[in-house]
Design brief:
Elements: H1 3-12, H2 54-59
Amino acid sequence: MTRTEINKLLATLGFYKKENPEDQVPEEFRFAPAKDSPFEGQSTSPPPKTDTDQSEADSQHTDL
């Protein structure tokens, strides 16, 4: 993947990217995805359901 493709993927997954290195990070993104986040337990929605079983999905990527 190229850097542009990775940045686009991260944006679609909801990750925050600062416009400039000196910009401040919004409060809701400061601790994510750290386990000691003060926002723990404030999930907005459950993960989406998939058509494939997780074990089947894992077996497709044995080269990773």
